[in-house]
Amino acid sequence: MHPMNDHAGSGAPVPTLFLLCQNMRAADQSWLGHILSQYGFLDDGDDGIAHIFPINAQHWGTSIGVTGGPVAAQMLREQAQLGAASLAGLDIVPDMQRCDVVALSLQRLPATARAQAVQRLAFMAATLCEVVQASAMFWPPAQLWSNPNDLAAAVIAMEEQGLPPLLHFVAFAYLLADKTDVAGEHGISTHGLAWMVGQEIEVMAPLTLANPEILRRCARLAVDVMVKGAYAGPMEVAGLSRGEVLSIAAVDQSGPVGIVRAKIVI
User: Fold this and answer.
1) Contacts of 92 (CB under 8 A, 6+ apart)
2) For the chain, how many helices (H) and strands (E)?
């Protein structure tokens, strides 16, 4: 498996989900600790009031450090500068100066544990969103800003599979024209999937297939790889419509991250 962009250096930041909050009390460690206690994210008998940031919370055995206030805001500013932003359910990049910030940090994790850990992180975030009045969230491995309004429903929809809500933790982007014009095709690629599974996915399709349909197939492959593990070689899998085939090429390891290239054959 190709090495992941996991910020593994000893001085590098751990993977952190950021919530932009309209409730100013989110910066109060005693208040936030008490909220975490009420929702069952602290040990039994711990009321959270005496905690200082970071608060050592957990959900189903996954440790999550919770930080608010200026420290969390500085963490967000640093992480948001590391790459071009993608948006999901938002029209513009939110104004980080007008909100308080809550940071939910995972420990550094082995590859096999990451997707499940992100699912538990998403559950905690969805639980907190209403009380902290979250207006946006940011996930640095995908450089993705997303709308938290539908996070709870997305978490519930993926809970049975034990997977994170895909559109809040993986960015999807149209492929650049120089990758598509020659073949008379268009396509969509993932960004941020590699942090969880070691690979990104590019899906190419005939121009007759609309972008939302390509996105559905790209998302399906992303879920498949989170469930079954990274693709190791070429294969063909059934598509989403009768007679359709997704032809998956050998993994391209020429860049910093392995890329799976899939072609939709109708």
Assistant:
1) none
2) 7, 13
- The count of other CB atoms within 10 Å of the CB of residue 23 is 18
pLDDT of residue 33: 96
Residue recorded with tokens 């040990």: 43
Q: Give the list of residues 6+ apart from residue 26 with CB closer than 8 angstroms, or none.
A: 19, 32, 68, 100, 101, 102, 132
* Residue 65 or residue 112, greater confidence: 65
Phi, psi of 114 (to 5 degrees): -70, -45
How many Cβ atoms are within 10 Å of 18's Cβ, its own excluded? Answer: 28
| b/e burial code for range 34-49 (CB count within 10 A of at least 16 → b) | bbbbeeebbeeebebe
> What's the whole-number mean pLDDT along residues 54-81?
95
Task: Quote the pTM value.
Answer: 0.90
CB distance 29 to 36 below 8 Å: no
The per-residue pLDDT for 139 is 97
> Span 123-152, mean pLDDT?
96
Largest CA distance in the chain: 64
